[in-house]
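An example makes the point: we print one protein in full, the chain in one-letter code, the fold tokenised, without further comment:
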Amino acid sequence: MAAPPKPEEISHPPMDQLQGLEYCIDSNPAWGEAIALGFQHYILALGTAVMIPSFLVPLMGGDDGDKVRVVQTLLFVEGINTLLQTLFGTRLPTVIGGSWAFAVPIISIIHDSSLTRITDPHERFLGTMRAIQGALIVASSVQIILGYSQLWAICSRFFSPVGMVPVIALAGFGLFDRGFPQAGQCVEIGVPMFILFVIFSQYLKNFQFRQWPVMERFALIITITVIWAYAHLLTASGAYRHRPDATQRHCRTDKANLISTAPWLIFHLITFQMNVACIYLSNLQHCCLRHSIVFCRWGAPTFDAGHAFGMMAAVLVSLIESTGAYKAASRLASATPPPAHVLSRGIGWQGIGILFSGLFGTATGCTVSIENVGLLGSTRVGSRRVIQISAGFMIFFSILGKFGALFASIPFPIFAAVYCVLFGLVASVGLSFLQFTNMNSMRNLFIAGVSLFLGLSIPEYFREYTTAAFHGPSHTKAGWFNDFLNTIFLSSPTVAMMVAVFLDNTLDYKDSAKDRGMPWWVKFRTFKGDSRNEEFYTLPFNLNRFFPPS
């Protein structure tokens, strides 16, 4: 039998915090650099913020004007939720954006017979939006209760490094269909964007201007500017004039119709204050009927038990995906893993974010933006202040409708090309947690391999089945039950967590604590388990006096 390696032969010992970052969670770049980095995060967040309404609003019967109003509302709510999460939630540098996890129950609402029989498209759009709002408002209680009651903190006691690796890894790998399949919709701009971003962010990262690593910090915004100008040149030169409609929709820079239909100003803040006062003084429905500009701008929400129950599955999926994303963000911000209390606190605030999504009418719920987590690693800047500045840009440009619509008109294949890098980076962060486990253990190899494989394979089966049959594998007479199962099993991180956590806590778990990485993991379960937790996760304004860690 071979002798064990000597300590000096192990060149890469496990490390609690990721090294090599220029700025960690509580260190800040100069204000000018921080503002530029915040604007870069805002530009990246536009991809999902535009793509979700562009997909859902036409199905709901909405026109281009409705689409641009939903996009601006979604950006405004993203900014509010991001500020709340970075100030009072986990305090990690995470953007809280729109979520694709809500697509299944929302499409089910869109196809509800009571709505499809409405002949006027605009009235059908309004009715569908109100039904979605009501379902989101009710379903948000799941995360609010699990978070603020600390039930999710109790559940996290069953997590270990082995169990969390598939969840974090598939938070990135599970989005593979948002990468090159979307970039390939317009190869002539998607592929150059991918190549340029890799060259600028990796091969030219040591290029400096006045001792400032311009290429590494701002590779995203530089490459988007170059490829966007190139795409506009192709559009203006008539390169797509005789191409199919699908090609024009993905490649042209003037097909989104966002700029022409966007108003110059959208007074979110004034009406926000007015509606808060209205809700405080009256009931929700009466308030929505009187002041329907921001809260319930589409009318009073309608409530249906079946819709709400299906939406609860999406809220659970959002919770699990965000748990993995928070773990990844903590590593890319050079922080310790968030303690159970902090994680649960963040989930509670995320539930408040979903409630806001329902009240404002964003047409979807919210979750942690995986692409923005990946950008922390690409720029090597994990500063909390940068993300808070990006939230300010989201709010600002959601009010200045025309200017926000200008940036939102960037063709989606440009974003998809960047996702190929950033989603992969987040996935690799998940795999890095294997360093705290014994990967010479057949038990650990079995758990990691099976959960990773099923986390990819089961959702792919559900996607292929749905594409072929136009409904999910669960197709009973109970629509809410179908929505619940189809939503859960379409999420790679959710499937991976169910498999990994079950196997990890039932398969030889009593005799394998060291192999699972528990001696390292256990000190991060409680707020006072590690002295660094106070530095990273203490609430601002001395609020810990009133909300002490449990």
